[in-house]
What does this fold into?
Amino acid sequence: MTKLTLQETPHDIWVVAELKDGTPTPLTLELTYGARMAADMMGFYVKAAVLGSGLPDVSGALIQAGADRVYVLDHPALSATGVASHAWLEALSDMFMAQSPEFVLFGATPMGEALAPRLAQRFGGGLIARCLSLRVDDFDRAFVGKRTVYGGEYYEVVATSGPAPQFATVLPDCFGPPYLDASRLGETEKVEVKVGDGSRFSRLEVVEFQMPRPKLKTARRIVSVGRQVGDVEAAKQLAAAIGAEFAGAREAIDEGYIDEPQVVGITGARVSPDLYIALGIRGDTQHAFGIQDARFVVAVHPDPNAPIFKQADVGMVGDPAIVAEELRKKVSLIGVTPGR
Amino acid sequence: MRIIVCIKQVLDPRGMTVNRKAEKVLVNREEYILDPASKAALVAAASIKAAFAASNGSHPPEIVAMSLGPDRVDDALREAMAFGADRAILLKDAAFEKADAFVTANALAAAIRQVGDFDLILLGARSLDTGSGEMAGRLVEALDLLQIAEAVSLETRDGAAIAVCAVAESFVQVQVSLPAVVSLAADAFDAGHPNGWRLMDAYKKWSVEMWNAGELGLSADDLKPMVVKKEDAFPPERQRGTRVTDVNELVTLLKRERVI
It folds into this structure.
């Protein structure tokens, strides 16, 4: 694809919406709200693009979150997602060509991460991937975003530059919870989608392949139990609520809480998740070895002198089952960032 | 058949300490290593070559390793040769000094076109340092090819690349006819160390080709970086063994560390 050059000066800030179960995802609303804040400062319009097939009317929610105009691209070819997202790419590329966006926000989701680099290259623009925080600089007319380096050891602040469209993929919790204003007004416009026959992509075939993903070693979050967990069901429910793998120290096998493949430690798996929650694990050397690459370790144990508290980033003395239950409730209230 | 592997060299994080309190990155030992994901790409290329040798074909695939950067990247390219690359090309120019993903993709694409006659372009899906994972998408656009992202296994059969990649909860097998771009996940390949004899040969007998921006025919527009680094920033300081007394505090900490 040769590089595309926009006909007019780019203007306005765009959000590419993603839907789940017929409603915009929380991340989409947050992005729309973030775009609104930038737009108020810069005097932009906020425009949202909704793509899909047989779309329900979601413009109301997007306008409440801050969109001035919602563009609806409804076409059977746009139903396919995942590996076959090229119809989205072509539809967005055509629309951006016609509309000349200056700033484009994507969620840092598989879809956003697949589309943003390609559109950025196509329009010769910059991209800040996986922003933890993002703002539009009013002086430079540029995105200034913070992204992680070395898996979150530290951050770096980078800025894009114009005049080509500027892109960013944004992680959740970047702009904070959206303020939904029911009195806000906006317009909705249907955009005609011209999707080719897709013959160019027929060379790409997808064969479903059922196999569980590798578990512990690559898990981003792990909830792990030991002898003192009390109620193992509470731990399992917590794991399900935060999208974590369920594991345990070797001692948990004796209690029948876990099976052999779920053991973390010298004689089990050596794990490196972003978050490791140890519930009722005392923290002997055998287990400590297994978690030394974990980025953030949370320990809950009834004994204040348990060695696990020295290994953990955060410790809490208490009944693990009760803490797990409370944590699950709290987290289901405020929502979790989907893991990587 | 020709396989082009684009590799990246990164600063070894083991020689580095991040002092969050002083807001400084201290580089105790400035050593550069081949990025693990790039290593995975090299191993994947070598395994395709090995599979070809096992089937007694007449024209074994040629593996070309390519990277953009200063002189020190020479080491990474020689390591790539030890991992099985037949040719190594370093794109080095003063104009690349501030190269971002856009400039890098333009330069790599131009170099790939100049090498020409390629069937497969491999690269790491996410590098160890910035890990933004945008290079594959950018190369796909610049070369107008099809792409498989974050593959965990790769083989070629009858002019097609067959890869398995993780999508949501399960694995999906994807097949694409060549030429194509495939990015590889770092953790799917156990790369280990390169062959020692080959590593010695890489330094004693073989050489790395140097190409500059002029030879690649890049315009000023292609060389203008679109993303500029402003500064480092640091997460709030954390200390092993912090105690909390209630769950609200715990959740606040987890959110602040961005782990849930």
